[in-house]
Amino acid sequence: MLIKTCYDFLQHLTVAKNASPHTIRNYSIDLNCFVNYLQDDLLGLTEKEGRIEKISHDEPYSMRAALNDHLAPFSIVDKRAIRGFLASLKRGAASEKTIVRRLSSLRSLLRFAMQRKVISENPAEEIETPKIEKKIPVSLSYDQVKKLFNQPDISTLLGFRDRVIMELFYSSGLRVSELVSLNRKDFDHASLIVKLKGKGRKERFVPITKNASDWISSYLNHPERHIDKDGHLKEQDHEAIFLNRLGTRLTTRSVDRNFDRYLEQSGLAANVTPHTIRHTIATHWLENGMDLKTIQVLLGHTSLATTTIYTQVSPKLKKEVYDKAHPRAL
Fold it and tell me: Assembly and interactions (predicted)?
């Protein structure tokens, strides 16, 4: 019954909650992690005993899963099992962020099971959520941004694409997932606006600079986009803005991988990621007088508290606050 409920829960997220494929995939990863703990650590199931089939986020509840569902009844999901699961994650050196996400997914499943009357009480209610240490985001200087942007070879289509991506990151502070999901219809060169699909599939319209808009237009009209050349195939996906070597939509993983290469070439710090550009432009906006509420809207933050952290990032702002507050010597 546990596995059937997991499948029903993922289906509920897909249909009723309209959750994104990325969200559904993350839930399935977390739930599989918990089921594996139950099999390996709590029940000690062996291959001969017929282990539970992996929960698939994009397939229906199968006959094979139904046959083995009895191996992990919902009754074993109690406080002891949940605490043991969290302890096993910690022993496995999982980060606090990962542990919190796994627990959050399990809590969501248990709330769903309560609503469907599969269980009569929620064993996760009294489990404390581990505290995550808030890290100050890394931000680049203007000179570092220029150095990074000069790495792609814009004489090639793929290098030109990567420079466009950097320009758009710095123009509007997009998330990587928002960038790769952009379609031609989401970009308006005349009004300098792009429509983004953010977290929870929430749409928002953000302005882009004339410079970034020109780079995008040049990329969309690049003559090599329609031919096979230099290791890349011609455009296959006619909706997507950013394409990979095969001419299909670029993935977040590819963006991260390309970024790592340019980062190594530039000699910048190893902890710089595509998301660092998002932090960087937010910090630069703040330094140039943009108010936090506007930055919150542009970045698509649900809470202003998330945006406020940028006041702690900028050395320039810290110095200004220090100079204003410090009692000057007579």
Answer: Forms a cyclic heterotetrameric complex composed of two molecules of XerC and two molecules of XerD.
| Residues noted as catalytic | 175, 199, 275, 278, 301, 310
Radius of gyration over alpha carbons of the chain, in Å? Answer: 24
Strand-pair partners of 240: 183
Which residue in 76, 77, 80, 72 sits closest to 54, CA to CA? Answer: 72
Tell me if residue 195 falls in helix, strand or coil.
Answer: strand
Cβ–Cβ under 8 Å, residues 174 and 278: yes
**Where do the structural domains in the chain lie, given as residue ranges?**
2-115, 142-321
Question: Where is 205: in which H helix or E strand?
Answer: strand 203-207
Distance CA 213, CA 171 (A): 9
DSSP 323: H
Q: What is the DSSP string of 231-289?
A: TBPPP--SSBSSB-TTSSB--HHHHHHHHHHHHHHHT--TT--HHHHHHHHHHHHHHTT
- Segment 175-229, tens digit of pLDDT: 999 999 999 999 999 999 999 987 767 888 999 999 999 999 999 999 999 999 9
Residue 63: C-alpha distances to residues 3, 34, 70, 316 (Å): 12, 21, 13, 62
Residue 71: its pLDDT value, please?
Answer: 66
Which residue do the tokens 């070879």 mark?
153
Quick one: CA torsion of 15, 16, 21, 26, rounded to 10 degrees? -130
DSSP SS3 for 229: strand
Distance from the first to the final alpha carbon of the chain: 77
How far is residue 182's CA from residue 300's CA, in Å, rounded to a whole number? 16
Taking the CA atoms of 311, 317, 322 and 324 in sequence, report the sign of the dihedral they define.
negative
Helix (H, G, I), strand (E, B) or coil at 23: helix
Architecture of the 142-321 domain: Orthogonal Bundle (1.10)
The conformation of residue 168, written as its DSSP 8-state character, comes to H
